[in-house]
């Protein structure tokens, strides 16, 4: 995944990505795309929550009410990197963003 705005990210360093459900998309928008599989699909009227298995983790994606999916379907989870946070996997410390 590209890390252009994090000045303290070192190549090959284990990192943890922190991102909110509204900053993820299954509608092909965002800076980076993670391959995943729909685990659950919850239409909630004004929005849809899509649980997607990405690697060994399950992430919740907040989507428009018109988004549809089927458990087992392969999707790409787009990440808005401008809204994401990176943390050192060993220390848990947040990495500095460029210009901060």
TrEMBL record:
SUPFAM superfamilies: MOP-like. GO terms for cellular component: ATP-binding cassette (ABC) transporter complex. One of its GO terms (molecular function) is transmembrane transporter activity. InterPro entries: Mo/tungstate-bd_C_term_dom (IPR008995), NA-bd_OB-fold (IPR012340), Transp-assoc_OB_typ2 (IPR013611). It comes from Cellulosimicrobium cellulans (Arthrobacter luteus). Residues 17-87 form the Transport-associated OB type domain. Gene3D superfamilies: Nucleic acid-binding proteins. This is Transport-associated OB type 2 domain-containing protein.
